[in-house]
Automatic annotation (TrEMBL):
Domain of life from the UniProt record: Eukaryota
Classification via Pfam families: TatD_DNase
UniProt keyword annotation of Magnesium present: yes
Residues annotated as binding a divalent metal cation 1: 101, 215
UniProt keyword Calcium present: no
Any GO MF annotation of the entry: single-stranded DNA 3'-5' DNA exonuclease activity
The name this protein goes by in its record: Deoxyribonuclease TATDN1
Record function comment: Deoxyribonuclease which catalyzes (in vitro) the decatenation of kinetoplast DNA, which are circular DNA catenated to each other, producing linear DNA molecules. Plays an important role in chromosomal segregation and cell cycle progression during eye development probably via its DNA decatenation activity.
InterPro entries, per database record: Metal_Hydrolase (IPR032466), TatD-like (IPR001130), TatD-type_Hydrolase (IPR050891)
Family: Belongs to the metallo-dependent hydrolases superfamily. TatD-type hydrolase family.
Cellular component aspect of the GO annotation: cytosol
UniProt KW keywords: Cytoplasm, Exonuclease, Hydrolase, Magnesium, Metal-binding, Nuclease
Amino acid sequence: MEKCYENYILIDIGANLTNKKYSRDLDTVVQRAKDSGVQKIMVTGTSVKGSKEALRLTRIYPGTLYSTAGIHPHDAKSYDDQSWEEICRLVENPECVAVGECGLDYNRNFSEPEDQKAVFEKHINLAIKVNKPLFVHERDAFNDLVEILNKYSSKLPPVVIHCFTGSVENALDYLNKGFYIGLTGYLCKDKSDTGVRKLLVDNLIPLDRLLVETDAPFMYPNTRASKLPVHVKEGLTERSTTFLHRYCTFQRNEPCSLPAIVEMIAAFMNKKPEEVALATSFNAMKLFGLS
Ligand SMILES: [Zn+2]
């Protein structure tokens, strides 16, 4: 901890640390995250089994790891009442700080949209019941997702649109509803003129609604390949890129890539990375009640 003052203090609100890619060296991955400045990590639960495992990990790394519990829209087809009871039990635990990941994904439609919608509504009702934030995944399903959430608008707990990849228009709509936006290394992949980069450049996300996450092992922020503006490239510090380039790859991103992501977000917003780090960590602590 002695060199802590050199670091940002960051919270990764979504990392899939139950993924088997970490089964051999999770200790090292968590320690590396801390060394890079990522003090707390929320481990995403995307299935009954995964949510159980995520909760188990919080017991091994108390105060560092937290979990979520839910069924990913890809797996909506696997829903049954018995497994749902398990999700309901899991979210009662204090270390489980959000309901999800849940939502709609029409990009690949691994489950039928009708199944996805039904399972999503189960999560919404559960989040309302236990009064924990809803951790939402949405791909190419903006209209249906909003239509469903609108039905519950007066009762909803805080809603986080995790790994946001949509348009400026969608983001503004989410923000109008009071939702939070989670950003990842997708920033490097975004090639549109009306997407995440535009949102940041035009300063359309208030700092008090922004959260940051790696979605590791996915969403590797490929700072080399993407055409980043010069001032964004220059905003990357040697320290953050060392963690990124030494330990993270396309095959396996890690939470220690978060400082680089925050530096890019800050550069696009024309703000100091320290300011983005402080705001997003504060938001995460408050929203998810992290100690
Ligand atoms: Zn997701």
